[in-house]
Design a protein that fits this description.
This protein has a seven-stranded mixed beta sheet. A two-stranded antiparallel ribbon has the order 1-2. Helices cover about 30% and strands about 30% of the residues. Helix 2 packs across helix 4. It has about 210 residues and is α/β, with parallel strands linked by helices. Strand 7 and strand 8 form a beta hairpin. The protein is built from six helices and nine strands. The structure holds S-adenosyl-L-homocysteine.
Length: about 210
Amino acid sequence: MEDSYRHKGMRRKLIEELGSRGISDKNVLDAFDKVPRHFFLDLAFTNQAYSNVAFQIGAGQTISHPYTVAFQSELLNVSKGNKVLEIGTGSGFQTSILAAMGAKVYSIERQKELYLKAKRIIYGLGYNPKLFYGDGYKGQPSYAPYDRILVTCGAPFLPEELMSQLKVGGILVIPIGEGDSQIMTRYIKVSNDEITKDTYGDFSFVPMLEKTVK
Ligand code: SAH
């Protein structure tokens, strides 16, 4: 697939739109400039790749809206070199945005088909996150602790395993709720026995489900 001036122009427009909707973290906006979102979509959707729309990516899953990806990335407050664990690789777009922000990314996907497809696209773009096929409820203890943890599917509750794999001072962003909408929630692990929680409105994600799918 090619990344033409036309695509770059569409990206600039999207970045302006994200800015006008309140996204201000330069690191996030710069990453949106770098990562060609159309690489993560079927060819038929290339022209809409930079509109604020979610798309099917196969296996009944969707790539999140660009605004949602930007919003979650901003809440995560990522610094270069941060170790970030992502649950729900999906298309790999959010994974690539985090990598473009300079994070060391670890990402888990429970659907084998998506894990394999995302791997090809992400590595093809030259990003080098560690990708796992597995159940995100368990996190990835072998690389813990993480500076940041991002859940990109709608979780019925905060999985304890994830909080235990977060560093003190770390941030965990997770959409919580069952059904059609979830409440965007940000936890900060102030110390081992103090965790703060803030909420940021309703979003709509595919559900976080247990066990892997072959
Ligand atoms: N970050 C993705 C969002 C994809 S949608 C993107 O930018 O495209 C959420 C993804 O979470 C889906 O691919 C779904 O299969 C995956 N998922 C759901 N439950 C999971 C779990 N328990 N562990 C890992 N991934 C999960």
